[in-house]
Amino acid sequence: MVTAPGGALRPWSPAEAGATAGAAVRGWAHVRLFSTWGEVVDRAAEKLPAPTGWTHPDPASYPSGGDWAERYLRPLAHALGERVRLGSRVTGVSRAGRDRIVDADRDRQPFVVRIARADSSEEQVLARAVIGASGTWATPGPAGACGLPALGEKAAADRISYRVPDLRDPAVRARYAGRRTAVIGSGASAFTALVHLADLAGSGGNGAGTKAVRVVRRGISGSAFGGGSADQLPARGALGLAAKAAVDEGHADAVTGFRTEAIERDTEGRLVLVGEDGRRLDAVDEVIVLTGLRPDLGFLDELRLRLDERLRAPTGLAPLIDPNQHSCGTVHPHGHRELSHPEKGIHLVGMKSYGRAPTFLAMTGYEQVRSVAAALAGDLEAADRVELALPETGVCGGAGFFDAPAPSAAASTVTDVNAPAGGCCGS
User: Could you tell me which of 331, 320, 319 has the C-alpha nearest to residue 392?
Assistant: First the structure.
């Protein structure tokens, strides 16, 4: 989103790369959120579609990604009308007449925003401020344990996915049915994929013979399937328990302490994962890589950003969200000051502001935007005021699987004193 140059704050337009509002969210439409409707609808934004007859969904229920996009994001975009530009991707941001190294009168120049349209045409607009809220969905982490793609990963792209599979789609179902699939990752997305594959294996028909292999970089510990009672909501514990059940019932194998270095093909064209320690796993037909997401900052390369060397988050925010120290519920409310950069007028918000930290919550993002908007409007009192109260236990647990029953009391009393404090939102 950019704001027009000049005096009063005047939104120019949110640029949506997809053909419809919430295109990235629709990419995981089949996945249930870990927050309730009451935690993913912004108090200010909900006033915009209200005159059209829109009503707030049950605040206590859990939406899927598709629900969120269709029942909130689409009506909100419709209420904003022509201000929302669809099929428009920002490809670069700079200062008018100034590249990254030029100091002279830099702060007095408007931002230059380059936009590519779906029809391959381009345009350029000038802006007083830029709010980057493009998230991290388009840049998933690789299979390689060192942070780079594993050797052979790109060559095996036809057999690798970086998303939780939507097995409701017949073509996707056929891809995994009756086959052996490695799932690389240790977070909630990996748990979800394991349970979906286990459900496919138990569905009979062409699903018979479906097998998953859970591959994680950590060693064996009591938190291998979540933190039990250390999880911030019992329902998220249920997700881990369901993944554990997939292993216990024989629908999935577990390989721990395995750090992928290479992906090779055997003589039959199947994939073999090779570890840094030289271990070679049995061949699989498919690989699902769910190792987290990372921000794409390339289109901001001509701007002067101050980013934490580890998380790639603004340096004022990074200590507050470090997953080694914080879970969702312990992140301190923050706003424009923590999100500021040496380049005045640019703010990264939402998932992009968190860099590689996995602890982001929608309601935290809403507060970020409220604070930044108030600061741009010149109301520093409002910008500095904290208007976010997270429940003490956090709100990042899982909704489980749609109609799955709540975990039993016995199942939720497992305690692991070594459970990590962070990673609560799907690292």
Answer: 331
- CA gyration radius for the chain? 22
Amino acid at 139: T
Tell me the three state secondary structure of residue 275: strand
Instruction: Copy the structure tokens of residue 418.
Output: 């070594």
Which candidate, 43, 51, 40, places its Cα nearest to that of 73? 40
- pLDDT tens digits for 221-241? 555 665 554 555 555 667 778
Using 50, 70 and 90 to split pLDDT, how confident is the model at 358? confident
Q: Helix 234-248 to helix 188-201 angle, to the nearest 10 degrees?
A: 50
Q: Each residue of 29-40: b (16+ CB within 10 Å) or e?
A: bbbbbbbbbebb
Q: Which residues pair with 129 in a beta bridge?
A: 3
Rounded Cα–Cα distance for residues 34 and 40 (Å):
10
pLDDT at 70 over 70: yes
Contact 256, 186 (CB under 8 A): no
Q: How many CB atoms lie within 10 A of CB 10?
A: 10
Count the neighbouring beta carbons within 10 Å of the beta carbon of residue 272: 17
φ, ψ (nearest 5 deg) of residue 77: -65, -40
Give the C-alpha separation, 316 to 15, whole Å.
27
User: At a CB cut-off of 8 Å and minimum separation 6, what does 53 contact?
Assistant: none
- CB contact set of 25 (below 8 Å; sequence gap of 6+): 65, 68, 69, 73
Q: Quote the tokens at residue 311.
A: 């998380």
pLDDT tens, position by position, 4-62:
555 444 455 678 888 999 999 999 999 988 788 998 999 999 999 999 999 999 999 98
* Burial (0-12, 13-18, 19+ Cβ within 10 Å), 215: buried
Within 163-273, where are the H helices?
170-176, 188-201, 234-248
Task: Give residue 52's identity as a one-letter amino acid code.
Answer: T
DSSP conformational letter for 212 = E
Highest mean pLDDT among 193-197, 405-409, 413-417: 193-197
As a whole number of angstroms, the distance between CA 232 and CA 228 comes to: 9
